[in-house]
Backbone:
């Protein structure tokens, strides 16, 4: 009877989704669950914002179990079952009619356990999925030369988003138990259904996974679109009466996310009840013949061994910084401007040290030193005895903090190479060629000032008087990198000495320099170990 009823129950997920979303009670509860879960996490962030940083907030949002969703969806499981099956096709022995009758307290306790323990297990397995899926993706990005896409925000918050997505996918299995318990199935039978699902309904699990990923992709698209529209409204300073017009796309974006969440939850619940209800295996035989169970156990062991191997390999790759790093220099062109820009880029992509020297001092004392190890992602700086040290697991400025400091310090607008002439400087001329060295020079005051400040001379001085102006840089043609240079500029406003500008600096590069960990940091902390694994 049960099998014939299952044949009659919808075979198309589109039909299941249509029937599930056509039930106003189910959709209303799903929308309410979306609002309450999202609202609670926003409230949690707002409350903890005074006491924790952004990373702790992300962790708190991720760790909090979806209690409202579990109890809310369990409460309408019987309604969902009726909606997708239809009263005329439901089997007489279907327990959905019993609803919440029976041991209510026992079922509430089981749902609470799923909401908490199940969520933390889902997060643990979400970690596994994140490491296995994210590692090859990032490896390919590094190999293809798109490592710049992995900005500080992506490196820092990407793991939380990735683990959260992985946990949503894993929640498909606990969600089956929630649906079964909610419609009146015993706790033991519900968990037997969950255990049987991967073997008995792999295609249905794949459908549920695709449905979840579609929701994630749609939500991400809605978030990005809303963010861009809000930024456009803010830049345009539009208003609707006394209200900032940016509230319009925000409200629209929230409405879209709530609607998407309601459809996703309703569809997921309907799918669980349609594809997995009554799919638990028969009761264990009293006989002693265990041979039929040996194959599934062997397959399970192989699957566990394979997943474990993938996780260990991914962890080793990430923790040991195994990734393609392009440090091979590009050929030097003949045009002087392109020559300097290429040599600058070759230097920047290599492991090197940059030193800014005080050319006015008799011994050219070091004013500032910047050292970078691209392969191991280490950066250090030193300015007048004030030292910093950064890796992709620690940010050390005065006090060490477990953060992806390297990713922060090497973003294009933050790279702290003080005093270095800009790679966008133009109008260089070749003034000397000696063996494996070429010397370039700038003499025009506007070009020299732009090389140092990336700004126009006329922007600072109303009527500049140039007393001295030149810049020279030497390129190592064998390494195809910058070697050393010097810049001199003395300018003032006509008739005034208050706005005088006098700069005389020298700089040099050391290719292949190492970056050593400061002794005061001691061994890596737990926080550093975390980022060594996740900030890949």
Residues:
């Amino acid at each position: 009877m049960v099998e014939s009823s299952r044949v009659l129950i919808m075979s198309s997920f589109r039909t299941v989704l249509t029937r599930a979303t056509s039930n106003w009670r189910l959709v209303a509860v799903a929308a309410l669950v979306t609002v309450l879960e999202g609202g609670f996490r926003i409230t949690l962030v707002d409350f903890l914002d005074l006491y924790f940083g952004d990373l702790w907030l992300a962790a708190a949002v991720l760790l909090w179990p979806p209690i409202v969703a579990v109890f809310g969806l369990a409460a309408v499981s019987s309604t969902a079952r009726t909606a997708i099956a239809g009263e005329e096709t439901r089997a007489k022995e279907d327990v959905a009619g019993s609803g919440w009758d029976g041991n209510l307290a026992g079922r509430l306790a089981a749902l609470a356990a799923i909401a908490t323990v199940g969520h933390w297990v889902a997060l643990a397995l979400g970690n596994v999925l994140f490491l296995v899926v994210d590692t090859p993706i990032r490896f390919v990005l590094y190999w293809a030369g798109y490592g710049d896409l992995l900005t500080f925000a992506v490196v820092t918050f990407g793991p939380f988003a990735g683990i959260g997505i992985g946990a949503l996918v894993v929640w498909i299995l606990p969600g089956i138990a929630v649906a079964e318990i909610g419609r009146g199935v015993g706790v033991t039978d519900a968990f037997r259904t969950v255990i049987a699902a991967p073997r008995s309904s792999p295609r249905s699990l794949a459908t549920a996974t695709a449905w979840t990923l579609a929701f994630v992709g749609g939500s991400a698209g809605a978030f990005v679109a809303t963010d861009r529209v809000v930024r456009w409204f803010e830049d345009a300073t539009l208003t609707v009466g006394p209200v900032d017009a940016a509230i319009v796309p925000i409200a629209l974006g929230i409405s879209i996310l709530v609607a998407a969440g309601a459809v996703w939850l309703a569809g997921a619940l309907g799918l669980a009840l349609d594809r997995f209800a009554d799919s638990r295996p028969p009761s264990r035989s009293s006989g002693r013949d265990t041979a039929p169970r040996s194959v599934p156990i062997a397959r399970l062991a192989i699957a566990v061994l394979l997943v474990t191997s993938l996780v260990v390999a991914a962890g080793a790759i990430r923790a040991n910084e195994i990734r393609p790093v392009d440090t091979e220099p590009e050929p030097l062109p003949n045009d002087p401007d392109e020559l300097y820009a290429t040599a600058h880029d070759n230097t920047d992509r290599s492991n090197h040290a940059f030193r800014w020297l005080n050319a006015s001092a008799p011994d050219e004392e070091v004013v500032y030193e910047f050292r970078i190890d691209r392969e191991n992602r280490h950066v250090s700086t030193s300015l007048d005895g004030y030292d910093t040290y950064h890796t992709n697991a620690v940010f050390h400025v005065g006090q060490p903090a477990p953060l992806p400091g390297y990713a922060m310090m090497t973003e294009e607008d933050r790279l702290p190479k003080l005093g270095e002439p800009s790679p966008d400087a133009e109008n260089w001329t070749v003034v000397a060629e000696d063996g494996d060295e070429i010397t370039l020079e700038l003499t025009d005051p506007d070009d020299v000032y732009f090389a140092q400040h990336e700004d126009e001379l006329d922007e600072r001085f109303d009527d500049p008087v140039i007393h001295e102006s030149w810049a020279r840089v030497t390129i190592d043609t064998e390494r195809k990198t910058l070697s050393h240079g010097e810049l001199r500029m003395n300018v003032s406003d006509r008739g005034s000495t208050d706005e005088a500008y006098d700069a005389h600096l020298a700089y040099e590069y050391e290719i292949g320099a190492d970056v050593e960990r400061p002794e005061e940091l001691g061994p890596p902390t737990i926080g550093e170990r975390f980022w060594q694994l996740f900030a890949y």
Q: What stands out?
A: Residues 1-10, 87-103, 282-295 have pLDDT under 50 and may be disordered. Residues 18 and 425 are 62 Å apart (CA to CA). The chain has two domains: 1-84+103-279+298-320, 336-535. The longest strand covers residues 464-476.
